[in-house]
Amino acid sequence: MSETIANSDQVLIAFLLTLFAGLATGIGSAIAFFAKKTNTRFLSAALGFSGGVMIYLSFVEIFPKSIEILEAEMTVQSAYMLTVVAFFTGMLVIAVIDRLVPDFENPHEHKRVEQMGGEEAAKNKKLYRMGILSALAIAIHNFPEGLATFLAALQDIRLGLPIAIAIAIHNIPEGIAISVPIHHATGSKRKAFLYSFLSGLAEPVGAIVGFFILMPFINDVVFGFLFASVAGIMVFISIDHLLPTAREYGTGHLPLYGLMAGMAIMAISLVFFM
């Protein structure tokens, strides 16, 4: 058994972090119920912060660690080349998933609370359909995100915790995207929250599937490849989803300040926990 494989306690912690990240869609659902207007400045900075955390960790921690893991089984040059291939494989996988989701149902096309309310009764059927399809689309996106969070935490809790927090912040607007149309279409907060909750469960499901299907085949080479793929997934999510959405919600350089703060805090925290 490879030394990179975690013990049962670390597996549990990794799963709980993934569960926390996934269920953050419920926070977005709650915001949709109780907020009449989205706090756009805070959300913009928070999404920029998440992007900074994930980009910094991907290039400064996860990518080099993948090379280090692979070097135990091959030459330095081969380890680097395989890490590069794995990194872009991760980006390709999440890009294909994103491409398969139609634009008008894409969960990353976020809307503000006030933009999604006040629909007439005649539009309820369309709203309900939009909410259901958004829930399905978000579940599809959340599956690889859950696997990425789980693998990162399994390798190192220092990496898993900030990634879980970043993914959780990222999931809040997705909860809004699901719950608001369903709530306005049905008048049921319970049903709206339920669909939002279920879509978030796709992340821990991704962790469970990854654990039971992949773990029997895990060795240093497989783990190093998967770990580098996580970096690719994180970078794609940040560049294609988090940062553009942060700019949509924010004004001026606020998303950039959030990005810089995320990177700076991660840099400082890694110094203290090395």
Question: What does this entry look like structurally?
Answer:
- The chain has helices at 8-22, 25-34, 40-70, 76-100, 124-155, 157-186, 189-200, 202-214, 220-249, 254-273.
- With 274 residues, the chain is mainly α.
- The chain has one domain (8-273).
- Helix 3 packs across helix 6 (157-186), helix 4 (76-100) packs across helix 9 and helix 5 (124-155) packs parallel to helix 7.
- Residues 1-5, 103-108 and 113-122 have low confidence and may be disordered.
End-to-end span in angstroms? 25 Å
Query: What is the structural class?
Result: mainly alpha
Helix content: over 70%
Strand content: under 5%
- The stretches of 5 or more residues where confidence is low (pLDDT under 50) are 1-5, 103-108, 113-122
Largest sheet: none
Topology order in helix (H) and strand (E) letters: HHHHHHHHHH
How are the SSEs ordered, and which strands pair?
Elements: H1 8-22, H2 25-34, H3 40-70, H4 76-100, H5 124-155, H6 157-186, H7 189-200, H8 202-214, H9 220-249, H10 254-273
Helix pairs in contact: 1-5, 1-6, 1-8, 2-6, 2-7, 3-4, 3-6, 3-9, 3-10, 4-9, 5-6, 5-7, 5-8, 5-9, 6-7
Could you list some keywords that capture this structure?
disordered N terminus; globular; mainly alpha; 10 helices; 274 residues
Short description:
The protein has 274 residues and is mainly alpha-helical. The chain has ten helices and no strands.
